[in-house]
Amino acid sequence: MSKKAVKLIQKVTWVGSIANIALAFIKITIGKLTGSQALIADGVHSFSDLVTDTAILIGSRYWTAPADKEHPYGHGRFETLTNIFIGFILAIVGIGIGWDSLYSISSESHSEPGMLAFSAAVVSVVVKEALYRWTAIQAKTINSRALYANAWHHRSDALSSLPVAIAVIANYFFPTFHYLDQIAALIVTAMILKASFEILWPAILELTEAKADSDIEKQIQAYAAEYKDIKEVHEIRSRRTGSTILLDFHLLVDPEMSVERAHNITENFKIHLLDKLDEVVDIIIHIEPYNCEERMLNPCCDDCGDKKE
Questions:
Q1: CATH topology of domain 3-207
Q2: For residue 12, which of 129, 155, 203, 148 has the smallest C-alpha distance?
Q3: What is the DSSP string of 194-234?
Q4: Among residues of the chain, what percentage have pLDDT more than 70?
Q5: Intervals of CATH 3.30.70.1350 along the chain
Q6: Which of 22, 68, 192, 195 would bridge 94 by S-S if both were Cys, CB 3.0 to 4.6 A apart?
Q7: Nearest Cα to 227, choosing from 264, 280, 275?
Q8: In DSSP terms, which residues pair with 244 in a beta bridge?
Q9: SS3 label, residue 294
């Protein structure tokens, strides 16, 4: 990853951190003043963003480092670990908010948040949605999964403020419905846990060496069909490391072809794939002869007129 990309990650994260501090302070303060359990929970959620922002700032120094002797495939898994950390923090915050909400429902004292709480929630929705869109755009520009995860953390904060605002308005018109604020806090919990799962699951799949992309095999086959000298491509394997993908596969050519020509064809095809497949950063290609022993997609058979090679 270039120095420009690293600086962009740092810049976007610092902007988000400053916004999170301001919003968390505003929401918790107004939540205390108005007695809004949901707004306080939302403020705690904003503070949790600071933890993930810190993880991004620290982690980006490691996952952007070039490959070395100890990490010949690069340091992309540090980005994966950062995503897992973000996911777990979200889950812990969500469970904590849910527990407090359930305890508050069982309490005999109830509050009636006013329009000040509504205003704070609306400001949070606008600011955090704007942060999500900006961060997501920057993440896509430099292809950073961790930065995109942090963008979704912003959106989860924006979404969590919506039920808060709705609960305040509903409480204003229906003051006898004492539990609306607590119910809104539980909805916030569900949203946070959902965001946590959506961040954690891809990272867990990556650590368990799951296939990187379900469509990448079709793409490789399509590109291989453009090369008349490539007879077959099979045993395509892909794995993700952070925001990048590593590939290896077998490539079959005419068994009468010279080693040098087969090598040149393979290198040209590799360069072509690296140019077309954005997330792929390295490819290992095993050259094989296109004969009956190696063919898999179009195997030889004795009764179909296919001459054994």
A1: Alpha-lytic protease prodomain-like (1.20.1510)
A2: 148
A3: HHHHHHHHHHHHHHTT--S-TTHHHHHHHHHTT-TT--EEE
A4: 88
A5: 216-289
A6: 192
A7: 264
A8: 241
A9: coil
Residues 6 or more apart in contact with residue 10 via CB below 8 angstroms: 57, 60
Q: Where are the beta strands (DSSP E) in the chain?
A: 232-241, 244-253, 280-289
| DSSP-derived 3-state class of residue 110 | coil
Rounded CA-CA distance 274/269 in Å is 9
Summarize pLDDT for 186-219 with one digit per residue, the tens. 777 787 788 788 888 888 888 887 777 778 888 9
Quick one: which of 33, 87, 108 has its CA closest to 205?
Answer: 87
Task: Report the distance separating Cα 131 and Cα 18, nearest Å.
Answer: 11
Structure confidence by residue, pLDDT tens digits, 241-288:
877 888 999 999 999 989 999 999 999 999 999 998 878 888 999 999
CA distances from 254 to 62, 262, 290, 294 (A): 44, 8, 5, 12
DSSP summary character for residue 291: S
For CATH 1.20.1510.10, the residue range(s) in the chain are 3-207
Class of the CATH-defined domain 216-289: alpha beta
The secondary structure of 161-184, three-state, reads HHHHHHHHHHHHHCCCCCCHHHHH
SS3 279: coil
d(CA 212, CA 206): 7
Let me know how long the chain is.
Answer: 309
- As given in the structure block, the two tokens for residue 122 are 């609306």
Read off the amino acid at residue 276.
K
Structure tokens at 232: 């077959």
Average pLDDT, the chain: 81
Distance CA 187, CA 159 (A): 10
